[in-house]
Each structure stands twice: as structure tokens, then as C-alpha cells.
Amino acid sequence: MAEAVSELQAGRQRQKLRSEVVHGWYQFVLAYPDHLIADLLMRLGVGRGALVLDPFCGTGTTLVECKKLGIDSIGIDANPASVVASQVKTDWDLDPELVEELSRHLVAKVAPLSQALLIGDMPLFSNRSDLASLRAHILAQSPEGQYVVQSGMISRHWIDETPFLISVALLTEIKELRVDVRYTLLLKLALVSCIVESIANVRFGPEIYVVKGSGNHDVLRAFTAKVSTIADDLRTVSAMPEVGRNWVLEGDSRQCDVLLREAGFEQVDCVITSPPYPTEKDYTRNTRLELVYLGFVHDRESLRRIKGRMVRSHSKGIYKEDSDGKLVADLPYIKALADELRRKTAGKKYGFAKLYPRIIEEYFGGMYRHLLSLSQVLRPGGKAAYVVGEQCTYLQTFTPTGTILAQLAERPEVGFRVSDVMVWRIRQGTTGSGNAIKEEIVVIEKK
Ligand SMILES: C[S@@+](CC[C@H](N)C(=O)[O-])C[C@H]1O[C@@H](n2cnc3c(N)ncnc32)[C@H](O)[C@@H]1O
């Protein structure tokens, strides 16, 4: 199979398929680099005919790379915005001419309003001649826009008001299109992609933060450019002779066996993934604009439901009723870590520090459940590669995430053996500890 992949790669080079093709439709700072996937597929001896699973698929990097190489794949993610991104990025059977035609139609519809807002002159809206009534008119048609305001994103400067109003008007027009929903999803993704890349004032480093006044106000120009890139990429990929098939499922990979069976899959051949780590990263905060613009978050409860499906990895996404930690709290390597954190946080007054030992337990408990569930659907002899980083996030407490995941996987009831641990990146600790922190690829094999 490995040979098959190198042939495919050679073929890919012949076609001069730029690596960023499709990946750039929507990107996320916590994604892993696309070249890693082809390398891993080759190392794991996976080629055409295999079914690859990414149980934490994020922006769909694994799926897109598999598709380019003619390999079938399934992605699962608990975040519906990531599911949309992965779905759109693997749907290459769309007509690029129609995509561009729809984009021109949308831009023509929103242009008068955009111009009026941008120049502060509203001749075309003489019956709603002040900004307040124009704003009210746009917002009245957009529950997504109303929630952006209500949730405080405007007052906290996540996005300036003018580009916000233009983007919301564009979103309303996209929703009104009477076309196949796959086209609407693509256009919505193009819009949210522009919003987080350049229109909003948010930056990622890797956490989300605001740089006031840094956003690009010319929403229509950014949207046109994004759609045109997507259409060009669709032309490129439609010339590829054989691409893999894809399925994307929304759900909790702590029960990936249930999700896969419900979708009609009994077994997968291989896993390539980067799961969450216990690093205080809140995937619903880093993708909040996407979640709101795509209509998935419209109140606290809808946000809470999405957070509830996530492996616990930060102190603002942990709940009283959580109980995954109990499954692993007595294992010596997890107990030692949690006890060290209990000692360090004993005298701390601030509330979140008290949660650190629990996050460690809940995180590894969640990943333990995921591994148990995976062992039900990965074929015997099948390999799973986890790209994970060591951490010093919590009070500089060294957390060897990859080593602990490997130990959990090797427990008799879970049923894997560790076949390889590779270091693929070393970075300096960001916590002031100065420690070199390894990012590893832990490869486990189903017995
Ligand atoms: C490190 S990111 C994956 C990034 C991905 N490799 C990429 O290239 O974009 C981890 C992902 O796990 C997802 N996630 C967290 N908990 C999950 C769960 N219980 N089930 C499925 N996905 C989950 C998050 O939404 C996030 O997209």
C-alpha cells in the first residue's frame, strides 16, 4: 500500500497540485499542516481501498489530503462549524461557474447597501435615511446578526459595525438563494472564512484576541476574492482522475463506534488525527464567530450543548456533572499529575485554578472513553496516529500527553499496542518555564 501512496504522490506532483488548494478555503490556527497527512499515510502503509477516520477532524485537513490521494475517509467533530467546513472542503462536485455566478448575484444585491454604509451616504435608502434605521432594517432580517450584537461581540470590538452590517446583509441574501443547499453552505463558509481571516478585528496567537480597528471593511471585495479562489480550486480538483469519497459526521468521538455504526460503518482501517489537548483551548470560543454566523449558536443553551459534547480541555468548559475523570483518576500516572496540581493550587484564591486537577482527570477520562470506543471499530492490525503535544499549561506542571495516551491505549480492556512514537516538532514552552516541549505522533495498533 505504501508504494501505492508514493505513486499517488508522484502523480500529484505531476499535476502540480499546490498543497494549499482547498485547504485555504477555511483555515484554523490549531490545524496541523497538510503535508503531515501524506507522510503519515505512507508511513502507516495506507493507500487506495482503505477507509481512514479522523475522529477530531476540525477543518478537514486529513479528509482533504486523503481525497487528493484517492483514499476514502470519514471525519467526526463535535463542533458543527468544523463539520460544515469539512463538508464543504470535501464537496468537489460543484459547478465553479455557478459558484461564481451566485457570488456576482449576491454582490450586486448587497453593493448599494455596502456602498451606502461605506461612504456614510445613503441615497438609495431615502426612506430609511439614517444609519440607525438601516441598521435596524438589516438586523430585523437576521437572527444571526441579532445574536452577534446581543452577545456583546460588537461592544467588545470583535468586529466593527460597518463590516458587520454588510456581512449580515450578505448572509441574509445567501440564505434567500433558491439553490442546492451545498452551494449555500459553500457561500456561507466563504463568508465566515473572510470574516475570521480579515474582516473581523480578531487575531489568533494561538488564542483569539482583538486588535481594535484592524479589520478590513470591504466585505464584498474579500468575499469575491475568496469565492473566486474556491472556484479556481474546484476547476483544479475536478481535473483529478480519481479522488477519495468522504463522509463527515457531527458528534462526540467519545462514542465514535456508535456514530459510525449509526451511519452504516462497521470498521475503519486507520486513524489520523490531532485530538484536543489539556491546554485551556476553547474550540467554541476560537470559532465563536463561525458558530454564530452559521446559525449554530443563538443563546447560551445552544452554546452549552456544543461544549457538552467536547472532550474537556479547559477550565471554562467543565461541568459539575462531568464524570469521565472517575474512570482514570486512580491510574498512577494520572493520579500523580492531579495530586501535583492539587498541591500547587491548594493556596490559590482564584476559582479556575481549583479546577486544574479536575481538567487533567476529565481530559484523560474523555480520551480513555474515546480509545475504548475506537477499539470497537478499528480493524485488528489497524493503526491510529495521534498528533499531540506535551504541555506545561497548568502552573508549569509538565504533562506528557502523548505518553499518557499511549499508556491508556495499552490497558488490557482498551486493546492497543504502541507501535511508534515520533517527535515531529519541538517548541519552547510558552509558560515561562523555558522547557522544550515535544509534539509527538503516537502510533497505536489494534491487537
Ligand atoms: C486540534 S483540533 C483538530 C484540528 C484538525 N486536525 C485540523 O487540521 O483542523 C481538535 C478538534 O477536536 C474537536 N473535538 C473536541 N472534542 C471532541 C469530541 N468529543 N468529539 C469530536 N470532536 C471533538 C474540536 O472541535 C476540534 O475541532
Task: Describe the overall structure.
- The two termini are 20 Å apart.
- The strands form 2 sheets. The chain has a 7-stranded mixed beta sheet, sandwiched between helices. The protein has a two-stranded antiparallel ribbon with strand order 3-4.
- The protein is α/β, with parallel strands linked by helices and 447 residues long.
- It has 17 helices and 9 strands.
- Residues 28, 30-32, 56, 58-59, 61, 76-79, 82, 252-254, 274-276, 283, 309-311 line the site of S-adenosylmethionine (SAM).
Summarize the structure.
The chain has helices spanning 2-14, 35-43, 61-68, 80-89, 96-119, 131-140, 143-150, 161-176, 181-199, 219-238, 256-262, 283-286, 288-293, 300-308, 332-345, 356-374, 401-409; strands at 51-54, 72-77, 202-204, 208-210, 246-250, 268-273, 378-389, 416-428, 436-446. It is an alpha/beta fold and 447 residues long. The radius of gyration is 23 Å and the shape is globular.
Q: Low-confidence stretches at least 5 residues in length (pLDDT < 50)?
A: 1-5, 7-17
State which percent range the strand residues make up. Answer: 5-15%
Helix content: 40-55%
Derived from helix and strand composition plus strand pairing, the structural class reads: alpha/beta
Strand order of the largest sheet: 5-2-1-6-7-9-8
Mean pLDDT: 90
Which oligomeric state applies?
single chain
Instruction: State Rg.
Output: 23 Å
Distance between the termini: 20 Å
What would you call the shape? globular
Please provide the ordered H/E string of secondary-structure elements. HHEHEHHHHHHEEHEHEHHHHHEHEE
Ligand set = S-adenosylmethionine
Q: Main sheet?
A: 7 strands, mixed
Helix segment tally: 17
The tally of structural domains comes to: 3
Number of strands: 9
